[in-house]
Amino acid sequence: xxxxxxxxxxxxxxxxxxxxxxxxxxxxxxxxxxxxxxxxxxxxxxxxxxxxxxxxxxxxxxxxxxxxxxxxxxxxxxxxxxxxxxxxxxxxxxxxxxxxxxxxxxxxxxxxxxxxxxxxxxxxxxxxxxxxxxxxxxxxxxxxxxxxxxxxxxxxxxxxxxxxxxxxxxxxxxxxxxxxxxxxxxxxxxxxxxxxxxxxxxxxxxxxxxxxxxxxxxxxxxxxxxxxxxxxxxxxxxxxxxxxxxxxxxxxxxxxxxxxxxxxxxxxxxxxxxxxxxxxxxxxxxxxxxxxxxxxxxxxxxxxxxxxxxxxxxxxxxxxxxxxxxxxxxxxxxxxxxxxxxxxxxxxxxxxxxxxxxxxxxxxxxxxxxxxxxxxxxxxxxxxxxxxxxxxxxxxxxxxxxxxxxxxxxxxxxxxxxxx
Length: 420
Hints:
Layout: H1 14-18, E1 27-28, E2 31-32, E3 34-35, H2 46-59, H3 69-89, E4 95-100, H4 103-113, E5 129-133, H5 142-151, E6 154-158, H6 168-174, E7 179-185, H7 197-206, E8 210-214, E9 233-237, E10 248-253, H8 254-257, E11 270-274, E12 277-280, H9 294-310, H10 312-331, E13 336-338, E14 348-353, H11 358-367, E15 370-371, E16 373-375, H12 380-385, E17 391-395, H13 402-419
Parallel strand pairs: 3-15, 5-6, 5-7, 7-8, 8-9
Antiparallel strand pairs: 1-2, 4-10, 9-10, 11-12, 13-14, 14-17, 16-17
EC number: 2.8.1.7
Catalytic activity: (sulfur carrier)-H + L-cysteine = (sulfur carrier)-SH + L-alanine
InterPro entries: Aminotrans_V_dom (IPR000192), Aminotrans_V_PyrdxlP_BS (IPR020578), Cys_dSase_SufS (IPR010970), PyrdxlP-dep_Trfase (IPR015424), PyrdxlP-dep_Trfase_major (IPR015421), PyrdxlP-dep_Trfase_small (IPR015422)
């Protein structure tokens, strides 16, 4: 049967699912909350809150270092969370998952780890080349700028075209014998653009480069299992997938992770220590120095189970329909330009309005109880490349409704009347 058959993607019971999210049952400025800022942070379902509460009230203890029962239960919960999340992203025995505070730390861990080993050990050396795309969040740009400075490597940029698209042939022209890293987003947080990342990762790996995928905006949606991607490192955040803030992971091929010099040195990441030296522990411990956020890991695993129980393809179909509704309605407004209107698989829509500042639009929408994001969305070079200033961005999740999109459109229309 065709995978696009509607029987395989039944409509989400959105109003039933909304009851899982306590935060949505409130009013803002006397209006029901329409939370449309999910590309920044998604809300927590009760299943995640309950999983974290159970841990904190029954099993809270430090892991790995205790022989007492609570420590053993906490260790088991932490290890089980790791296994759940590896399965969630489609990793296998050739991969390992390292817990982080989110995508930013994970990407810094990779960039830092590839130069900090020092002469004779670092992957990056003077004259090497690092390729990043022009779509990237600052978290997948600034660490590579620093890595280039510290290692003597050269940073090269795969620029999008005027519509914000990346092209395989442009990447092929950049790749060469000195290319050591390709760092790429799976979905641009500022526009919703989804590059052909699977093909681009494969092209870079064939050229001998390590490949890094920022999956923060994609991991909660339908994307290929990690085993099907030519991906050495993949980073994601919990708060983008209905998990706790301050949680996330770096998942990578063990061989690639072994190349990284640890970002954090200290407790629980060593095998032995003397006053004049130390030996690092095996993966994943060697990259997880310090006391981990065990409750956060438990909550993140609960979020993965929650998403899988609903079905990522069903969620994707729902948010894409909301995005299409919003994009069409916004484009029909006088003087409004929608970014990347072709990005039909996105869960977000960003736009600019002639002669009206996004912050003013966002403020007037908030007065109507509608939460959106305004600004450069930590992607200022992309906005500069596209010739844009800041934008307004609405982003959707499984609990958003078509009525909320209509409220957004009416709110933007009214804001334009007031502000022009």
